[in-house]
């Protein structure tokens, strides 16, 4: 059985996707408009990326900045169009005005995904009660991952929460894979791996030139090397910082 850690990289276009796969990414998160922290890409962009690489793609379902669902009917339509375009994995997550999970919005969107696998994204880091959110969502079809930094401020702030939640894996509400991302740096990796975390998500860390530049094959390869245990985290942590 493979023990290879999952490395997920944000891709905005086919060029990003090709570089990420060549660098050793296992999966891509597809978004557009990082000024709004990542919105749903067009079906055309999805198609171009799907034609360019053969690793799994998770498509963001989010139409506006923030974690409110907004127009749920439109979200459902967009999710349906992405399914029609061939998308098979997704990323989503919505909160209500009190910081609880917007279960109605989540269930309506998930209802058109036909059991596809999906990630509940960093809305969990803004939730009023993380444990309650997990238990509310437990059992929804297709939910297999939580993308989290452990805190709204990023992994530096959330590391204690991430380590504590990793210890609970397998409990009700904690069966899903923890995908760590948000201010993640290579220096965080050794402690997270030691705690049993086996999935990592990078965006800005794959782009030495910033979000205006493309994904760097070399940057992704550096992360792949560290996750595979080929480079000591303490040495690699000085190389790349990222979001």
From TrEMBL:
Pfam families associated with the record: CutC
One GO MF term: copper ion binding
Entry superkingdom: Bacteria
Family to which this protein belongs: Belongs to the CutC family.
PANTHER family xrefs: COPPER HOMEOSTASIS PROTEIN CUTC, COPPER HOMEOSTASIS PROTEIN CUTC HOMOLOG
Designated name of the protein: Copper homeostasis protein cutC homolog
Source organism phylogeny: Bacteria, Bacillati, Actinomycetota, Actinomycetes, Kitasatosporales
